Amino acid sequence: MSKRMLYVLLAAVFAIALTACGSSDEDDAAEAEEQETNQEENETEEDSEEKAEEPEQMEEEVENEDASSDEADAEQEAEEDADEEEQAQAESSNADFDALITAMEEETEGTATLLYENDEPQSHEMEGLTVTLDAYQLVELEDFHTNFSIPFNDETDGGVILAQYTVENDSDQDLHYMPSLDLDFVGATKFYTNYRELLPLDEQLSSMLNPDNEYLVESGDEVTGYYAYPFGSEDLEAILAEGNVILDVPTPTTEYNEYSSSIGSGTEFSLPLDGDSAEKNAETESQGFYQDALSAENMGDKEMIEQKDGIGESDELGDVTITLDGYQFVDFTPNAEEAARYEDPDNIVVATIRFEIDNQGDEEIGLSSLSSRLTVNDGSQYLLSEGMFHPYDNSSGIASGEEGELLQTFLLDKEMYEKIWKDKSMEIEIGPMRNMDAEDISKGHEVEFNLK
């Protein structure tokens, strides 16, 4: 072989070798580049996943923050509600009473808590003079100065009933009204009256109507003022348990300090001290029970058995016309305080008879001294009226030339009533008429009415 041919052959082998090496390097470079690309893609995917997770984490954190915020808001709202409730205990819906309570706290150095308030007025008209209990509140008064302990049974904790009254004279004459508006309740051992040291004197009814001005309420005039009735802690518990207190409303007089010149008939208001008692009183009034002492003083529960109104039968005792207006027979259940008065408290029927009295005589008729007799079982038995259940006191009367209501109340044996008496005739005898001194003014005469 010539040298020329040898060189050509070697050159060709060398070229082939270079080509092989070049291809390997390119492959390696391509592989490296591919690995790098894959790594970048993986990193990009990881970054994308991390970025996708970040909003979820942020959302969870926001939700947790919102929940914490809601809990904080709820706690704050609960605290605010508690503060408002505590404040509401001391304040009522009546700004005038709020001012009086604040003044009482400052005067006694005590702390007052509102227990009950009632803005439903109760009114009673007495021949032109009307007494209205506008509103009242019961507050608990605690930790007050010992200077005020005496009317609270020597205690420094108790309760106070604050009452607003209006006395209005719509008659054509001046009248005198001593505002001895005393409170009582079942089981009480005394009457409760206004304690002048608790309220500003110029706000009190007893400062507006007093001996200095002869308790004068001029024709066309009206007077509004307040009373404060204190109770010791035991008495407060008692009236809360009873649920009611009774307010005595006396009569006015035409002459100062002359009780014989009293006009109209006194009455009693029942003051509920909680929502249940108020609802019960409203139900009693809606059922139309006659307001004998059993109803007026909330001595127990009545359930109507038989009622008849508008009878309209009349008879005369001298110059006095007596009209039988109606009657009610009720199943009566005395409350726990009253039950001890009865031999069998589950066996009572009460009959209350209503009359209208037209007094055209010369003397005032005294209602508390009138009595009657109920004849039952076709005249073979009789019962006497129960004076203690009549809603009258010694000042209750019907003046000459006036008309008024008279209630007579009887206690009947329930078993006898249901088995025998209710289906047989009954008559009521009433009289004689008596004046304010309980003197007979109809010469012993009586009148009789048939009930059935």
TrEMBL record:
- Signal sequence span is 1-20
**Keywords (A to Z) from UniProt:** Signal
Q: Say yes or no: keyword Signal present.
A: yes
| Chain intervals for the UniProt region annotation (Disordered) | 24-94
Keyword Signal, does the record have it? yes
Which PROSITE patterns did the record assign? PROKAR_LIPOPROTEIN
Concerning Pfam families, the annotation shows: DUF5068
Here the segments flagged for biased composition (Acidic residues) are: 24-88
Q: Which InterPro entries match?
A: DUF5068
What is the protein's name according to its record?
DUF5068 domain-containing protein
Mind giving the lineage of the organism this protein is from? Bacteria, Bacillati, Bacillota, Bacilli, Bacillales
